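Example 5.3 — PEP-CTERM sorting domain-containing protein
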Amino acid sequence: MTIQALFRSALAACALFAGLSGNAGAIEFFTHVGDSTGKPTWDVDAGFNAPGTVVPYDAFDFHVDQDGSYKFLEAARFDSMIILYAGGFDAADPQHNLVRFNDDILTPNTSGFVASLAAGVQYTFVVTGFNDSEYGAYSFTIGGPGHVIPGPLAVVAVPEPSTWLMLGGGLLAVGVARRRKAVQA
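Solution (predicted structure tokens):
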């Protein structure tokens, strides 16, 4: 399959995807193009009863900014499958954190599903094949009510109470020293 044919398939799938959305409200779309060639490998047979034992995969971390129903559609140059994990993907334990997976929705080179996602949860989307020789270029689109934000979910550090007490004590000490200096002058 040429790259032009891959993108034509992806464009046709996106049109079908948009038509099947059935939502009168605004839908946000996120598209990613990648390649699993030379990526880490895993034993697909261990988790999905497939013939591959050293199958390349590509993992994409993201989160969304709004709860809701999101549609996933992928087209590839190889017989592919897609898997969604909440909270991270561990190739050694592929059933842990599993949300959804699919293979062959329109053709052997396309996969898709609908999943309910929550804002503030880290997700990992995995593109892989069933056999050791199934890898290469792919494209996927995610559509839903909110934005798809690539990368790991940022963790905001919240200071402990002792940190606030030390800060307050330091400010108090600076204030006392300044006051003493003003009185002596």
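Remark. Residues 20-24 have pLDDT under 50 and may be disordered.
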